[in-house]
Amino acid sequence: MDGERTGSGSVETLLAAKEILITCGAGGVGKTTVAAALATMAAVRHGGKVLVLTIDPARRLADALGLDGLGDKEKQLSPDAFRAAGVTPRGELWAAMLDTKQSWDDLVRRHAPNRRTAERILANKLYDNVTGRFVQSHEYIAMERLYQLHTDGNYDLIVVDTPPTRNALDFVEAPVRMAEFFSSRFLRILSAPYRSSVVSFASKPFLSAADRILGSQFLQDIAEFFSLFQTMAPGFVERAEAVNRVLHERRTTFAVVTTLETAPVREAEYFIDVLTTKKFHLGAVVLNKVLPSYLLDEKAARTATTLQKNADRVAADAGEGVGEVAQVSRVLTEVAESFLRFQVVAQREAEQRAELSVGPGVVATVPFFDTDIHDLAGLLRLGEQLWTP
Amino acid sequence: MSGLLERKLLFVTGKGGVGKSSVAASLALLGSQRGKKTLACELDSKGNLAEFLEAGKISFKPRKVQPRLYVSSVDSEESLKEYLAVNLRLPVMSRLGPLARLFDFAAVAAPGVKEILTVGKPVYEVHEGNYDLVVVDATATGHVLSQLAAPRVINELVQVGLVRQQTTWMLEVLSDEAQTGVVIVTTPEEMPVNETIELAPRVEAESGVHLAAVVVNRVLPELFGRGEEEVFERLGEPSCTAAVSEAAGGDVAPIFAAAGLAVTLRRTRAEHLERLRSSVAAGVPVLYLPYLFARAHGLRSTHQMAAALGDELGY
Asked: Minimal Cα distance from B98: which residue of A?
């Protein structure tokens, strides 16, 4: 258990001391890009073998990581790619994309008592449905894969980009829930009619009600599936508990990524709250896509107002050789109004930022880049911003 | 285009962070303003919808928050209670404990069971004719298909029983193009556009629900007209900027920098918009909503968005 706070520091020092970094945050805040940039920086600056495990990267980001057309298997970025971006990395950067279905199949094969049971589970018509949309199936698999990679010991640092979850912290709780699920009484009741014709007294009312709602054939399908699935319980429970331990270890840290828009900030606050309460190590908060600070400048705002009101005069005074006075005046008006519009947004962001101030020691800010990130050079540019305060 | 609000049931989805709930809120508000008795309904989510309508705390029971506009929040447990009360005539309160736990299991076993209850609620309202328009703030792109396809999946898995009957009438409502449609919300950014392009053709193929419209949210204004961008570039030359600063009585460099940022942002986004336009099937309207440079998001900005949507729909 490790509930310590990092204290003042930088992402650089944070990553030097950790073996696992998990990024989390609302959808659309740039989690995947931040995870990739952090892994890239760690490989370039700290050295060692660094792996970024990502879920669903943008095509161009996947290209940047050399992940195009690649599945589940980790792949190393070629040194040529770094050379093209103008750097010589001290270490190696590896990347992998998570394939949920494949990982589930592997898991079933590993935990099933024998091959025949494994094949029956994989062939069950409910299996696809369940693994595809199981409660927290993606979340669990991401953590399970992380654990596997971590215990294999091939990497000095693993950076994980978490899947977009419906509920903020499903992925850290998924291992516990999975363990609970397999050891629960109701699972036994549900699989009872399949195991034996003697249905226990306690389960009868449930089953008759369920029968009216779902129909008995379907109920039997479910029962068959779960009694097969339950053969994997001991392995699963043990494994889920081990995964959970690794997440709480001192070498594992979390980075909450957010933009300064209202909804993501609220979600970030929730993440911070839950991570702290559940005694995970909150290493950093990354503020992404932050508008430039000059938008908050009072003097600039006053000048913009003057410019907007006196565009004709300013155009006449200073617009010589630039264009027709009327046209220059229109441009100046637009420019001034645009500044004032963006200022409103920047002020809103500053307020959100103040509300987030109760975070960990490390708060890294990434400015609004005006282009999408689609190559290693772009990732490095973003990474530089994150690296030191 | 005005056909969008002639439908009775709209599911609003989109990648996380694109403003799905605010678009759902403004569609519902627009519907109510146009005289329809409207229900805005949130499915198993985080409660953003209420904020955009400044509706306070919302619950399973619809509450009137504006003339003709009702808001509710549907979760599976409440849906189950109602479902059982309607279909089994059970004395609900006394029996619900064990049944809810059983239901949790059925939900784990075949997640569709849970979804047909939550999706079932708005479909039921339409089926019963309780509202002229029901706007559903559905889940994000990643999950929406499993939500919408649930009735079909369950209908195939379950051959008899009450659930079978329920999914049968649900499918009738859901697959009727005149009544039901999906609205995908995106912003003109890379990932949201990618997800929209990927999702659009799959909606009907996998769930049987028709794609009614794509809404592009947060479109930045075009700053300059013909020839004006060149003027702006010339103004950016150091001697020119200095002269303008002097005439304006203050440094205009940050003001020009902000405009430069706005211009490049708009340009990058225009490329994504182009990609989107060329891949959305003809016949599916694409509606554009401006970026709101607003202090906060609430009923006021929802009104602005509803007005903009009205313009786009030709009202």
From this structure: A206
pLDDT of B94 strictly over 50: no
Is residue A105 one of the residues assigned to a domain?
yes
Assigned domain for A69 exists: yes
Domain that holds residue A111: 11-182+246-292+353-387
Say whether both A345 and A364 belong to one domain: no
Which one of A210, A294, A370 has the shortest CB-CB distance to B264? Answer: A370
Between chain A and chain B, the number of residue pairs with CB atoms below 8 A apart is 224
Domain ranges of chain B: 2-222+276-312
Q: Look up residue A369 and give its DSSP letter.
A: -
Instruction: Compare CB distances from B254 to A214, A264, A300 and report the shortest one's residue.
Output: A300
Average pLDDT taken over every residue of chain A:
81
Closest-CA distance of chain A to residue B243, Å: 5
- Fold for B2-222+276-312, please state it: Rossmann fold (3.40.50)
Residues A166 and A124 in one domain: yes
Q: Which of A11, A13, A96, A15 is nearest to A48 (CA)?
A: A15
Contact check, Cβ <8 Å, A342/B293: yes
- Token pair, residue A204, equals 């009868």
Q: What is the pLDDT of residue B116?
A: 80
Instruction: Write the pLDDT tens digit of every residue in B123-161.
Output: 999 999 999 999 999 988 777 887 888 888 888 777 777
Instruction: Name the domain count of chain A.
Output: 2
Within a domain: residue A158?
yes
Chain-centroid distance, C-alpha A213 = 38
B297: nearest CA partner in chain A: A262
Reported pTM: 0.84
Residues of A in contact with B254 (CB under 8 A): 294-295, 297, 300, 339
Residue B109: enclosing H or E segment and its boundaries?
helix B92-109
Q: A86 and A129 in one domain?
A: yes
Place of tokens 């025949």: A116
pLDDT for res A182: 64
Please indicate, yes or no, whether residues A326 and A372 belong to a single structural domain of this protein.
no
How many angstroms separate the CA atoms of B118 and B102, rounded? 17
Does residue A5 carry a pLDDT above 50?
Answer: no
| Residues of chain A contacting residue B46, judged by C-beta atoms under 8 Å apart | 267
Residue A95 tokens read as 């990347």
Q: What is the pLDDT of residues A339-378, one digit of tens each?
A: 999 999 999 999 988 888 665 568 888 888 767 777 889 8
Predicted pLDDT at B41: 95
Closest-CA residue in chain B for A326? Answer: B228
CA pair distance A189, A223, nearest whole angstrom: 9
Q: Which two tokens stand for residue B87?
A: 């279909």
Chain A residue with minimum CA distance to B47: A263
- Cα angle A191, A224, B92 (rounded to 5 degrees) comes to 50
